[in-house]
Fold this protein.
Amino acid sequence: MRRPGAEPARAASGGAAHSVALTEQGPLVLTAVDGGRAKLAECGVTAAPDPLA
């Protein structure tokens, strides 16, 4: 039961959605300019090489 005057709960979406390809050489973030290399490196993950480079 909701309290009178209380705000309803809302979902908080704090980030952007990305498209990711999982390749034999590692993940590649298709919607990130750098292929996700910077953020993946922060997590200790090596991104796949850019297939268009």
